[in-house]
């Protein structure tokens, strides 16, 4: 047995979750009763595992150099046990923070952002349809009732956003990063708003355009293929939502992003930012190199910040933070639902992906999504990352509530309006 084998074996002995390792020679380490086995074709990813760099192990799994025998849930239980000390890291040195900012500036411009969004969202509509809900809402669901199905919880999330924004009939509403149009349709059909959505994904643009025509909403809903920085409406919007888009902006562009939200809102208008944040202060890393894996294979250009950084940035451009809600456990359940749905139809999923690419590439894409969904579910379960809804106003004259001097917005400065039954 080599020194590396001894290191791996000693780590396996400390795990609360049994894990078996199959070495390139065929020798196995760890208990035979383990529910999950990792079979290594070469030593490089084995060394990465020994050092705690599970992101590199993930890369090897995508490339087919490490095979997984067992369920994604069992694998993630083992992953959580492997990196107990790497969930929270101290603040990086100043030079690293400066380098991170330089990279953020370099990676984010209109052309790069469009290419990065399309590399993820234009994979295949049919592929996404297999594991998302019928509306293809690709963001955290809201399990208002624990017995809700995924589809019911996604509708509840759409309604939760509309209620928080206190949408009223005839208001002008914008959805920045409209996805497959779930929120646009829900807001227009249930709250009577005039809705404008934007996306950088050609597939999503085409899908929403068809939905608008099929539902006869062309006079009330429009979808635009454009960057948020290029949206120039004839008049400011009354209400605005940004759901699952904030993560793609980049640290260096947060001031620009929130500045655009301010400029798109009329004085007194409300906006809701729904986005993933990192849990630790002073860094944007997810434990064990998993953040690097997600950026490389799933969300190129994606950058996470702490919620305090988001609030600081929006405050810096003159917006007011009104209400903040952490939906982290809801996203853990959402992601596990997506993961389980994908796991239940792997052969069909690979066949769909192979229609547009070489078979070996389709297999890589599928392996990357399997790890991504289960790994993100683990990250939310273990509190490495969170999901915050931040309700925001652009303070201004004209909306002051009688009896509340200085209210200066459409927000009533109490929460009961969000939860009253029958408010449509």
Automatic annotation (TrEMBL):
<dbReference type="Pfam" id="PF02353">
    <property type="entry name" value="CMAS"/>
</dbReference>
<comment type="similarity">
    <text>Belongs to the CFA/CMAS family.</text>
</comment>
<protein>
    <submittedName>
        <fullName>Class I SAM-dependent methyltransferase</fullName>
        <ecNumber>2.1.1.-</ecNumber>
    </submittedName>
</protein>
<dbReference type="GO" id="GO:0008168">
    <property type="term" value="F:methyltransferase activity"/>
</dbReference>
<dbReference type="GO" id="GO:0032259">
    <property type="term" value="P:methylation"/>
</dbReference>
<dbReference type="InterPro" id="IPR003333">
    <property type="entry name" value="CMAS"/>
</dbReference>
<keyword id="KW-0808">Transferase</keyword>
<keyword id="KW-0489">Methyltransferase</keyword>
<keyword id="KW-0443">Lipid metabolism</keyword>
<dbReference type="InterPro" id="IPR050723">
    <property type="entry name" value="CFA/CMAS"/>
</dbReference>
<dbReference type="InterPro" id="IPR029063">
    <property type="entry name" value="SAM-dependent_MTases_sf"/>
</dbReference>
<keyword id="KW-0949">S-adenosyl-L-methionine</keyword>
């Amino acid at each position: 047995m080599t020194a590396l084998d001894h290191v791996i074996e000693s780590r396996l002995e400390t795990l609360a979750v049994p894990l078996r390792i199959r070495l390139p020679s065929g020798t196995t380490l760890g208990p035979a009763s383990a529910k999950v086995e990792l079979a290594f074709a070469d030593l490089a990813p084995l060394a990465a595992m020994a050092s705690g760099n599970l992101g590199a192990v993930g890369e090897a799994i995508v490339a087919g150099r490490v095979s997984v025998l067992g369920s994604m849930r069992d694998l993630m239980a083992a992953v959580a046990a492997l990196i107990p000390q790497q969930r929270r890291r101290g603040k990086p040195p100043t030079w690293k923070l400066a380098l991170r900012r330089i990279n953020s500036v370099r990676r984010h411009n209109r052309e790069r952002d469009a290419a990065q969004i399309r590399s993820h969202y234009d994979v295949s509509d049919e592929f996404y349809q297999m594991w998302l809900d019928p509306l293809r809402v690709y963001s955290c669901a809201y399990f208002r009732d624990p017995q809700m199905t995924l589809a019911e919880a996604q509708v509840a999330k759409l309604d939760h956003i509309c209620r928080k924004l206190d949408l009223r009939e005839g208001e002008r509403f914008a959805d920045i990063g409209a996805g497959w149009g779930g929120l646009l349709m829900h807001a227009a059909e249930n709250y009577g708003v005039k809705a404008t959505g934007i996306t950088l994904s050609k597939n999503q643009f085409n899908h929403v355009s068809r939905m608008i025509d099929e539902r006869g909403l062309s006079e009330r809903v429009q979808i635009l293929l454009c960057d948020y920085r290029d949206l120039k409406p004839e008049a400011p919007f009354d209400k605005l939502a940004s759901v699952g888009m904030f993560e793609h902006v980049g640290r260096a562009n947060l001031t620009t992003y929130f500045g655009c939200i301010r400029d798109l809102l009329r004085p007194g208008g409300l906006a809701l930012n729904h986005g993933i944040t990192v849990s630790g202060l002073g860094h944007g890393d997810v434990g064990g190199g998993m953040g690097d894996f997600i950026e490389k294979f799933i969300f190129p250009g994606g950058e996470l910040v702490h919620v305090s950084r988001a609030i600081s940035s929006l405050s810096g451009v003159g917006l007011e933070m009104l209400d903040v809600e952490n939906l982290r456990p809801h996203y853990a359940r959402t992601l596990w639902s997506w993961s389980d749905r994908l796991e239940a139809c792997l052969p069909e999923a690979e066949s769909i992906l192979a229609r547009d690419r070489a078979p070996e590439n389709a297999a890589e894409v599928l392996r990357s999504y399997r790890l991504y969904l289960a790994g993100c579910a683990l990250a939310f379960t273990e509190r490495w990352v969170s999901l915050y809804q931040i309700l925001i106003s652009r303070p201004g004259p004209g909306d002051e509530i009688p009896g509340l001097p200085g209210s200066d917005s459409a927000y009533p400065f109490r929460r009961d309006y969000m939860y009253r039954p029958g408010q449509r």
